[in-house]
């Protein structure tokens, strides 16, 4: 009976708890001076926040997307944030269109006029909803093609380019804490694949001075999860009591691709707001 009462109190507490806004510091530094980063899916959400933080840390950025208008809008917003007119580039690129990846990449190299890309951030990703019994083959293929297959072959292309040009570079895969859960959806399966691929790619490329790591956010306050623009970032299902922000993910991305993270190799950095430490006793004995 005592435990039942405690569980009821916990439900009531969560129901009426008010979220107190928190200050999210942003990392501004010279850690990425003279670097050039290619960021897939950089027009919004985590990808856009990473592009923003990379610029503020000294890097030039090339963002990709599949909608020309979205790319143009994102590039203009990034340029207007500071003296970045010559440091922001955008290109239409569909990660799942493998046969045209090399052509698109060559277009990027032409755009940046002699600069060398030394950072790749594999961020582009999609999800398709529905339960296991409702997932369609075309949904499965689309998610795996964008999230995993596209990441694999773009990484292959960039790695060859870095090796050919003797570039001391970084590849950062945006994974997901979902890869710690049993995989039943195409999205979670793709993130399991990214986790394994990060380990294998790191082992393969480290001898060539190319450092590979993964960054795995938990539930993040982006449009993928929060559809209502008036929603807050409360999330009482995790100990932190709120969603992670894209800015927090971007801060960590800067560190991982900078000289500060050079000895972090083949690791997945999880940012879950404490969700990874919840155990069965938290359900049985909530206080």
Task: Give a written overview of the molecule.
This protein is of the alpha/beta class and 287 residues long. The chain has helices at 2-16, 45-56, 68-79, 101-111, 137-164, 186-205, 246-257, 280-284; strands spanning 36-39, 60-65, 88-92, 119-122, 169-174, 210-217, 268-271. A seven-stranded parallel β-sheet has the order 3-2-1-4-5-6-7, with helices on both faces. Helix 5 (137-164) links the parallel strand 4 (119-122) and strand 5 (169-174). The protein is globular, with a radius of gyration of 20 Å. It starts with a helix and ends with a helix.
Quick overview of this protein structure:
The chain has 287 residues and is α/β, with parallel strands linked by helices.
What attributes characterize this protein structure?
7 strands; single chain; alpha/beta; 8 helices; 287 residues
Low-pLDDT residue spans: none
Q: How many H/I helical runs?
A: 8
Please describe the biggest sheet, giving its number of strands, its sense, and whether it closes into a barrel. 7 strands, parallel
Q: Radius of gyration over alpha carbons?
A: 20 Å
Specify the helix fraction band: 40-55%
> What proportion of the residues form beta strands (DSSP E)?
5-15%
Termini separation comes to 15 Å
Please give the structural blueprint.
Blueprint: H1 2-16, E1 36-39, H2 45-56, E2 60-65, H3 68-79, E3 88-92, H4 101-111, E4 119-122, H5 137-164, E5 169-174, H6 186-205, E6 210-217, H7 246-257, E7 268-271, H8 280-284
Parallel strand pairs: 1-2, 1-4, 2-3, 4-5, 5-6, 6-7
Helix pairs in contact: 2-7, 5-6
